[in-house]
């Protein structure tokens, strides 16, 4: 039974005590009964409300600007804003994270997180990530054993002007990031790292005006990036292997039905490695499928496959995509000895590939022979701007009306990639600042 607001307080005196600073009493509410805790009516801050919540409860936040960092360490609670654009957790550039989720089955919905020095929303099973300092490509957990947070949902969240990642799932499995907006991230708007198998779905999001729209580092196995708008970043999407994180190498992700375009926006933060003008980059990743994406107007390259210093990129399949207006549509380049084998192309709309013999030498089904390699002239990237100066988002859609807490499944339903079509150039344009694509 779900009760809200005043009724919950009248019947559960522990909530009143906690709001006044006293510890809640165990057993003050019948087992299995769920309540709605309203901010600020029932608790003065979001953090205070979360500390009162039990599994199955809803923390419902009224419009306002909240200067706090919220840590959710109780399983199966829902943190939801009443209004996505006007419930704002603002870090004032004084705190690392807006929201940190360290418990399973938590839903974060319908609010905005901004002005944090590191992340807007962080979902993690790693104690080092929850309290540590990021490196250049993510979090270095050192000798910490891999521990996954299992089951999460981030839905209808706006993450803007954060110093590292907008929405970040690290050492987490069995989750969904959906219907969200990420901009102004000095690294990646949406980042998934260190999971194998991930069983994570990133769907129906807009990422723009970031250094990178989406990044998946050592994110492998049942990893789905589908139907997203990754437009107007410096780099649209990357899948890569990185020694700084565990569970090498990155492999077996599905990138399907995305619009990945115009990723050479000057008014964006600059990532440390200086990437610019690239739609899709696969760096030391293997056995990934890139299917029916529209990749348009990326000044350097639509899709690049390369290798890290010691990790090859093997067995990637590029099938049924439309590449138009890119500097190079598909370029495969291996400047190190880790050359890569078995990468292949089939059924793509293409104008220019590098090396020239790529279509003949790398058709699907692939052979195990080494992947050919070439080079091309890349445009010079302009200097970036501070993440604090990125353009403000336009109004974003509200979470559909919901009664009570959200039940987050233990394992999300994974998409049928065969049913996802090539997207139109107008995909989610009404939700974006960068709306006009180059012809």
From TrEMBL:
Residues 1-18 form the signal peptide. Pfam families: NosD. It comes from the Bacteria. SMART domains: PbH1 (SM00710). Keywords: Repeat, Signal. Residues 161-330 form the Periplasmic copper-binding protein NosD beta helix domain. InterPro entries: NosD_dom, PbH1, Pectin_lyas_fold, Pectin_lyase_fold/virulence, SCF-Subunits/Alg-Epimerases. This is Periplasmic copper-binding protein NosD beta helix domain-containing protein. It comes from Actinokineospora fastidiosa. The lineage of its organism: Bacteria, Bacillati, Actinomycetota, Actinomycetes, Pseudonocardiales.
């Amino acid at each position: 039974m779900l009760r809200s607001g005043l009724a919950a307080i009248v019947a559960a005196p522990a909530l009143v005590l906690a709001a006044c600073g006293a510890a809640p009493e165990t057993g003050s509410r019948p087992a299995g009964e769920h309540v709605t805790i309203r901010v600020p009516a029932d608790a003065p801050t979001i953090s205070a409300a979360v500390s009162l919540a039990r599994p199955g409860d809803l923390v419902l936040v009224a419009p306002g600007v909240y200067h706090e960092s919220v840590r959710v360490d109780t399983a199966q609670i829902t943190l939801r804003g009443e209004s996505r654009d006007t419930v704002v957790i603002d870090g004032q550039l004084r705190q690392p994270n807006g929201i940190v989720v360290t418990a399973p089955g938590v839903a974060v919905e319908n609010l905005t997180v901004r002005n944090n020095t590191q992340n807007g929303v962080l979902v993690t099973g790693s104690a080092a990530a929850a309290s540590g300092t990021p490196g250049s490509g993510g979090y270095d957990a050192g000798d910490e054993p891999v521990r996954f947070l299992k089951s999460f949902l981030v839905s209808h969240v706006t993450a803007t002007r954060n110093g590292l990642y907008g929405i970040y799932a690290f050492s987490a499995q069995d989750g969904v990031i959906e219907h969200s907006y990420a901009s102004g991230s000095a690294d990646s708007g949406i980042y998934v790292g260190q999971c194998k198998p991930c069983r994570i779905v990133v769907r129906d999001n807009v990422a723009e005006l970031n250094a990178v729209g989406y990044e998946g580092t050592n994110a492998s196995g049942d990893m789905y990036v589908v139907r997203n708008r990754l437009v107007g970043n410096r780099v649209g999407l990357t899948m890569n292997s990185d020694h700084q994180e565990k569970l090498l190498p990155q492999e077996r992700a599905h990138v399907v039905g995305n619009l990945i375009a115009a990723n050479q926006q000057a008014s964006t933060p600059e990532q440390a490695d200086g990437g610019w003008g690239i739609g899709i980059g696969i760096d030391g990743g293997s056995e990934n499928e890139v299917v029916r994406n529209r990749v348009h107007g990326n000044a350097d390259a639509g899709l690049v496959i390369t290798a890290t210093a010691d990790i090859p990129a093997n067995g990637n399949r590029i099938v049924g995509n439309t590449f138009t207006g890119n500097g190079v549509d598909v370029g495969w380049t291996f400047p190190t000895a880790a050359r890569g084998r078995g990468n292949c192309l089939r059924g793509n709309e293409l104008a220019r590939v590098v090396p020239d013999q790529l279509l003949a030498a790398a058709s699907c089904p692939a052979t195990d022979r080494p992947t050919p390699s070439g080079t091309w002239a890349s445009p010079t990237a302009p200097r970036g701007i501070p993440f604090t100066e990125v353009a403000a988002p336009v109004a974003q859609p509200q979470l559909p009306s919901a009664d009570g807490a959200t039940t987050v499944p233990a394992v999300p339903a994974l998409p049928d990639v065969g049913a996802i079509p090539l997207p139109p150039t107008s995909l989610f344009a009404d939700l974006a600042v960068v709306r006009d694509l180059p012809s």
